[in-house]
Design a protein that fits this description.
Largest sheet: none
Mean pLDDT: 79
Order of helices and strands: HHHHHHHHHH
Radius of gyration: 15 Å
Low-confidence stretches: 173-178
Number of domains: 1
Number of strands: 0
């Protein structure tokens, strides 16, 4: 299951999409399409972070300590300013800068026809739900897993080309780093 599937299939994930749709004034179907256009960039950002020295440990720590599951379990929390701030912090770690976030929104706007300003408003909420979905899907397993096993637990979420493995994505990233 990749990150988008995790967001959409996670118990409560559909409710999170509904909440995001209400927050930005989109029909739910368009919000789902927007999430579909935004999720691959978040997945690539997570891959980049996991491939950096200490990146996987940092991601696992954030998943264990961040209480991100609340965004899936209680999607109404996405309406809070503190949730948007948390989502922006997540985007800062995952995407690296506001310029990258703007580019992600612009690319998704080109792909979907949804106004980029709406997508920019959605992006922090989608980031929060993505971390919530990751946390929920890997919850309980992380504490007992070693690094290699943890990577295995997360690999489906990081698999952007849907070939069943994130190894090729991580190897491509490692090649770029060295």
């Amino acid at each position: 299951m990749n990150l988008l599937e995790s967001i959409l299939d996670s118990k409560g994930g559909g409710n999170a999409i509904s909440q995001i749709a209400r927050q930005v004034g989109l029909p739910e179907g368009l919000a789902q399409q927007a999430v579909g256009a935004l999720a691959p960039a978040l997945s690539r950002g997570l891959q980049r972070n996991a491939a950096k020295p200490g990146g996987l440990e940092s991601l696992l720590g954030a998943l264990q300590k961040g209480n991100h599951q609340r965004y899936v379990d209680e999607p109404e929390t996405l309406a809070r300013e503190s949730s948007v701030e948390d989502g922006n912090a997540i985007l800062g770690h995952v995407l690296g800068s506001k310029d990258v976030s703007r580019n992600v929104a612009a690319n998704a706007a080109n792909e979907t026809g949804i106004d980029a300003s709406i997508l920019k408003k959605m992006l922090p909420m989608v980031g929060a739900v993505a971390m919530g979905s990751l946390s929920k899907q890997t919850g309980g397993q992380l504490g007992a897993l070693g690094g290699g096993d943890a990577l295995g637990a997360l690999s489906g979420f990081l698999d952007t080309d849907k070939d069943g493995s994130a190894t090729d994505e991580l190897l491509d990233l490692a090649k770029k780093l060295f």
